[in-house]
Amino acid sequence: MKRNVAFIGVFLALALVCSYVESLIPFYFGIPGMKLGLTNIVIIIMLYCMGTKEAYLISVLRVLLAGFLFGNMFSILYSLAGAMLSLSIMTLLKKSSLCKIITVSTIGGICHNVGQLIVAALVVENYNIFYYLPFLLIAGFITGLVIGIAAQETILRVKRFF
Q1: Which residue windows are transmembrane per the record (predicted)?
Q2: What DSSP element (H or E) covers 123?
Q3: What is the rounded CA–CA span in Å between residue 108 and residue 8?
Q4: Which of 26, 45, 106, 145 has the fewest CB atoms within 10 Å distance of its CB?
Q5: Average pLDDT value over all residues in the chain
Q6: Is 141 exposed, middle or buried (0-12, 13-18, 19+ CB in 10 A)?
Q7: How many CA atoms lie within 13 A of 55 on its CB side?
Q8: pLDDT band at 28 (very low <50, low <70, confident <90, very high)
Q9: Distances 99 to 26, 96, 102, 143, 161 between C-alpha atoms, Å
């Protein structure tokens, strides 16, 4: 039990560091709110190495803490919606043995953007915002793929510690 608590603390700190580093990277392609998703490496590692409950815990705590430290209430709202939809879908895909880590991450990246877009449409009460959807699907696919490859390689190297 103490070991799990220590791992959760370390992974939460790592997730916050990834959030901070990502906030420093000038990554803008004309789409508001688009990010690399570096923190998802930590979440995927948690999902595959520790478990679903731990991944949800780290995800929620990271969104709240990063939002208070580096963002605002809207960033927390958007990020939480994207993170919960993404993690829920990734959890379901992980349970089916058909999907590999890279596929789970890629679909998770897409779902994260869809979750944020749904909340944005509800907040601004304008559904024209869905014109961003094709761009966000492509961005989610690319970043999810890159994050999936990084997470898979990391899991291969650290799995023995779990």
Answers
A1: 76-94, 101-123, 129-151
A2: helix 101-124
A3: 21
A4: 26
A5: 89
A6: middle
A7: 24
A8: low
A9: 32, 7, 8, 17, 23
| CA dist., res. 97 & res. 37, Å (int) | 24
Class of domain 2-161: mainly alpha
What's the rounded Cα separation, in Å, for the pair 16 and 12?
6
What is the rounded average pLDDT of the residues 129-148? 92
As a residue count, the chain comes to 162
- Residue type (1 letter), 72: N
Taking the C-alpha atoms of residue 38 and residue 66, their distance in angstroms, rounded to an integer, is: 13
Q: Is the pLDDT of residue 136 over 70?
A: yes
CA distances from 151 to 16, 54, 110, 145 (A): 17, 16, 16, 10
In the chain, what are the domain boundaries? Answer: 2-161
Q: Are 43 and 144 in contact (CB under 8 A)?
A: no
In the block, residue with structure tokens 């990063």:
66
| Nearest residue to 129 (alpha-carbon basis) of 33, 27, 28, 26 | 33
pTM of the model: 0.89
Residue 74's H or E segment, with its range, is: helix 73-95
C-alpha dist (Å) from residue 1 to 6, 14, 15, 61, 82: 9, 20, 21, 19, 30
